[in-house]
Amino acid sequence: MRTKVAIIGSGPAGLLLGQLLTNTGVDNVILERATQEHVLSRIRAGVLEEGTTMMLQEAGAGKRMRAEGLPHDGFDLAFDGRRHRVDLFGLTGGKRVMVYGQTEVTHDLMDKRAATGGLSVYEAADVLPQDFDTDRPYVTYKKDGKTHRIDCDFIAGCDGYHGIARKSVPEAAIETFERTFPFGWLGIVADVPPVSAELIYANHPRGFALCSMRSHTRSRYYVQVPVNEKVDDWPDERFWDEIRRRLPEKTAEAMTTGPSIEKSVAPIRSFVAEPLRFGRLFLAGDAGHIVPPTGAKGLNLAASDVRYLFDALNEYYAEKSSAGLDAYSEKALARVWKAERFSWWMTNTMHRFPDQGPFGQKIQHAELDYLFQSRAALTMLAENYVGLPY
Q1: Dihedral (CA of 144, 146, 152, 154) sign
Q2: Among 1, 11, 116, 242, which has the highest number of CB atoms less than 10 A from its own CB?
Q3: Across the chain, how many H-helices and E-strands are there?
Q4: In what order do the strands lie in the sheet with 138-143?
Q5: CATH number of 5-72+97-177+269-347
Q6: What is the tens place of the pLDDT at every residue in 273-321?
Q7: Domain residue spans in the chain?
Q8: Cα(360)–Cα(74) distance, rounded to whole angstroms?
Q9: Strand 74-79 to 82-87 pairing
Q10: β-strands 200-202, 47-48: how paired?
Q11: Do residues 313 and 18 make contact, with C-beta atoms less than 8 angstroms apart?
């Protein structure tokens, strides 16, 4: 088989890139090692920047998002027992975010791909990008007991942090930067109405908490826990008691509780690989970088990578120019590092660290207090949260 772009990974990054290419007549094939059902079972973040929502609409996969998504014009930071609102809309000249689950984004993109005839190969085992340092790259995989080969012009590695794309790069050709935080997020999903119409990020002496949602009837809540904490040690009753302790009194009293339908502990880390291009292999999304979820940037950074990569590929096929491809890594990484900085700042400002002591806690308090006395500081927060321009 031959195609122009072989895409490894059927998450939002791979599906979005594939759909944008399909819409402009650029042949592509998506290879995914898991089943389609498994990909759709992943419950992930759901705060979309304006740029991400615009790209989904450009791909023709934004209809359900527009109908069911929850536009948010702000969010709250809670500390000292009070909630303080960040007016995203007012501080950014009318920008907002959209709360719409990553699972729903994936579902919509899969449906659109099926409707437009895009080829996705699920349960593709032992996927391996090869000869990407030449002008004749190809990808091999196994399916139904047979080895298959796809010849292509370019390979897009959209297969996540643990995927094969980055692992296929020679060690000497790539540099990685990483920080692991000394805590995790214990998160639950419950079919109860959200405690607030907008997100609440809480800084509390007992640790960080986040009140989020997936819809008007489904809530997503998190509490900071030690990194080695076990889910089995957190029955629902203990979780609800703990998150209410970390919220302002009136908010805690208004919270509706119920049985969890999903519960997990996620480690918090930052990771960046440089560069993001290796000959004719390009990394996008979690294959190239991870951010702490505090800043709601993971899925949105994947989308911005796709923005730059799609524009570059489109330019290559429409204008026979490789300028965009040559600039891809530098351009994408510039935005990645700004998002890493913002997520690092949010994480350090809102969480309790084992070694920070009373001095560190006072610094956090001063930072938050200053934030709401300075429109310039709030504007910095708002501009980064809604998403920096591409």
Answers
A1: positive
A2: 11
A3: 13, 20
A4: 125-130, 138-143, 146-151
A5: 3.50.50.60
A6: 999 999 999 999 999 999 999 999 999 999 999 999 999 999 999 999 9
A7: 5-72+97-177+269-347
A8: 27
A9: antiparallel
A10: unpaired
A11: no
DSSP category for residue 134:
S
Q: What is the distance between the alpha carbons of residues 79 and 201, in angstroms, rounded to a whole number? A: 9
State the Cα–Cα distance between residues 91 and 203, nearest whole angstrom: 22
Residues contacting residue 317 through CB under 8 Å, at least 6 positions apart: 4, 24, 26
Q: Which amino acid is at 347?
A: T
Which residues have CB under 8 Å from 90's CB, separation 6+? 73
**Can you give the length of the chain in residues?**
390
Residue 91: partners with Cβ closer than 8 Å, 6 or more residues away: 375, 378, 379, 382, 383
Distance CA 77, CA 377 (A): 14
Residue type, 286: D
Q: Single out the residue of 162, 158, 168 nearest to residue 130, CA to CA.
A: 168
Catalytic residues, which ones? 72, 201, 293, 297, 385
Single pTM value for the model: 0.95
String of DSSP letters for 288-337: TEE--GGGS-HHHHHHHHHHHHHHHHHHHHHH---HHHHHHHHHHHHHHH
- Do 176 and 168 form a contact (C-beta atoms < 8 A)? no
In 3D, which of 30, 33, 29 has the Cα closest to residue 4?
29
The C-alpha R_g of the chain, in whole angstroms, comes to 21
Sheet holding 5-8, edge to edge: 119-121, 28-31, 5-8, 154-157, 281-283, 277-278
The answer for 288, left when phi > 0, alpha when psi is -120 to 50, beta otherwise, is alpha
CB 296 within 8 A of CB 97: yes
Contact call for residues 138 and 79 (beta carbons, < 8 A): no
Contact 194, 219 (CB under 8 A): yes
Q: Please write the tens of the pLDDT for every residue from 226-269.
A: 999 999 999 999 999 999 999 999 999 999 999 999 999 999 99
The enclosing H or E element of 190 equals strand 175-190
Q: Can you tell me which residue has the tokens 């969480």? A: 351
